[in-house]
Write a structure and sequence with these properties.
This protein is an alpha/beta fold. The chain contains six helices and seven strands. Strands 3-2-1-4-6-5-7 form a seven-stranded mixed β-sheet. It starts with a helix and ends with a strand.
Length: 229
């Protein structure tokens, strides 16, 4: 499918979400995919709420991009932070970088810094939008553009599902969309600073996330999904 058709399809999905799901939100992490979504939302569906999760460990480059985005786009972006008491208690027990010790401890950290803030962000919403793409990982092969998120109890839209990495970057370049400077330094996927590194030539695009693990490379935000029937 030509990129122009994919762009038209993306715009159509976002307009549908905005018109049929008034309490909808876009979870923006400021990765390349999310910058495409943010750009199209600003043009086609400004009624969709935009939020981001600030874990407290984001790279400086991500915060710099947030400042650029706020200057460029006329869309409010709400930030959700982890509960300070939960973070303090976890660090007291595990140390500031205890997530390196085991998958279980890393998932605990993700739960506090990402999953619980996401639950607060989605409270009262009827649907949410993500920048997930099928080619990103094996875990995402069974996704649908529209599905039911049983973990959060609402509809979930993945309108970039069939886009390739080349599609994403072609759109960014053609539309002068700002993006995270780390992408130019070999970071195809960007999360928290201590949990993300550049990938080597030929490595999987998710290899830089939690690289010390041999797990499925997920943080818990996109688990326990059921597709719509």
């Amino acid at each position: 499918m030509a990129l122009s058709q994919k762009i038209n399809g993306l715009a159509a999905v976002l307009r549908k979400v905005a018109s049929e799901n008034s309490l909808s939100a876009f979870a923006c992490s400021f990765g390349a995919e999310d910058m495409v979504l943010l750009d199209v939302i600003s043009k086609e569906a400004q009624s969709i709420e935009v939020f981001s999760l600030d874990t407290g460990r984001l790279p400086e480059e991500t915060h710099a991009l947030l400042d650029t985005v706020r200057e460029k786009y006329p869309i409010p972006i709400r930030l959700y932070f982890p509960e300070s008491q939960a973070v303090e208690a976890w660090i007291e027990q595990n140390g500031p970088n205890g997530f390196y010790r085991s998958v279980a401890q890393r998932l605990q950290c993700c739960e506090i810094r990402k999953v619980r803030p996401l639950q607060r962000a989605l409270s009262g919403k009827k649907s949410w939008i993500t920048g997930l793409r099928r080619e990103q990982s094996a875990n995402r092969q069974t996704l649908q553009v529209e599905g039911w998120d049983d973990a959060n109890g609402l509809l979930k839209f993945n309108p970039l599902l069939e886009w390739t990495s080349d599609d994403v970057w072609s759109y960014i370049k053609a539309n002068d969309v700002p993006y995270n400077a780390l992408h130019d330094r070999g970071y195809p996927s960007i999360g928290c600073a201590p949990c993300t590194r550049a990938v080597k030539p030929g490595e999987d695009s998710r290899a830089g996330r939690w690289w010390w693990e041999s797990s499925e490379k997920e943080c818990g935000l996109h688990l326990h999904r059921k597709t719509a029937t």
